[in-house]
Amino acid sequence: MGPTIKTTLTGIEMFRKELDRGEAGDNMGALLRGIKREQIRRGQVLCAPGTVKSHKKFMAQIYILTKEEGGRHTPFVNNYRPQMFIRTTDVTVSLTHPEGTEDPDDKLIMPGDNVEMQCELIHDVALEEGQRFTIREGGKTVGTGIVTKVQE
Predict the structure, then answer these.
(1) What are the protein's GO molecular function terms (predicted)?
(2) For the domain that residue 91 is a member of, what is the CATH number?
């Protein structure tokens, strides 16, 4: 995720018009004191200090799209590593069966399954319980889910 950078928000613009405030989901420009364009990248979160935490490991309820829904044609096994899209960032994730699952290496996850999975991102991302996400592979959406429990 990169280091936390403290700054002051000096202005907000949307489509070249100044605004008094921005809301979640707005596509806006933020004028940040002392920050160069090279210091930021897509997917970073702008928030008040201490209001958002970044995490790497969590449990999630995931629905795997069927072939008819535009998803996978084949099942996948434990330790599947697709891309996960959370808010405006994408990151590689390792999907595994929860600890204590009997013989997790043999259990196939089929298209159409709604399963609880252990998720581990390759780097920390700002997320919280109840956060929705999309799973993509090879340029197409193969699943969707919701964070049920943050672990690390």
Answers:
(1) GTP binding; translation elongation factor activity
(2) 2.40.30.10
